[in-house]
Write a structure and sequence with these properties.
Blueprint (H helix, E strand, L loop, with lengths): L2 E5 L3 E2 L5 E8 L6 E8 L6 E6 L9 E3 L7 E6 L4 E6 L8 E9 L11 E2 L3 E5 L1
Parallel strand pairs: 2-11
Antiparallel strand pairs: 1-3, 3-8, 4-5, 4-9, 5-6, 7-8, 9-10, 9-11
């Protein structure tokens, strides 16, 4: 059974840090690109960051301009887990954060991701 389970969301103060995790089961993790999206109330879901698979992509990464320099995406294929390290959190960062997986190389469109988690809530006060 395919599952993506996010964890690590919490309430932190402005300037604080959080590390989100996304544990994957039921598919070939190292062949998938992994993405982190977020959706704030009343807003559309947006891409935060994505990392390519380890087959041909060499772990290429992408960051939205709004998080560049503050967030870092990485993956541990042995643990079948993707991570999003979030530093210097700002008042505009609160949202439900979702991870997603899609077979193939790095990707940017939501429709290109086949599997989605249920999300983890990040609050910044």
């Amino acid at each position: 059974q395919v599952q993506l389970v996010e964890s690590g969301g919490d309430s932190v103060q402005t300037g604080g840090s959080l590390k989100l995790s996304c544990a994957a089961t039921g598919f070939i993790f190292n062949k998938c690109a992994m993405g982190w999206y977020r959706q704030a109330p009343g807003k559309e879901r947006e891409l935060v960051s994505t990392i390519g698979n380890d087959i041909g992509d060499d772990g290429h990464t992408y960051y939205a301009d709004s998080v560049k320099g503050r967030f870092a995406i990485f993956r541990d294929n042995a643990k079948r887990t993707a991570y999003l390290q979030m530093n210097s959190l700002k008042p505009e960062d609160p949202a439900m954060y979702y991870c997603a997986a899609g077979y193939g190389g790095i990707r940017f469109q939501q429709y290109a991701y086949k599997y989605w988690g249920q999300g983890t809530q990040v609050t910044v006060s």
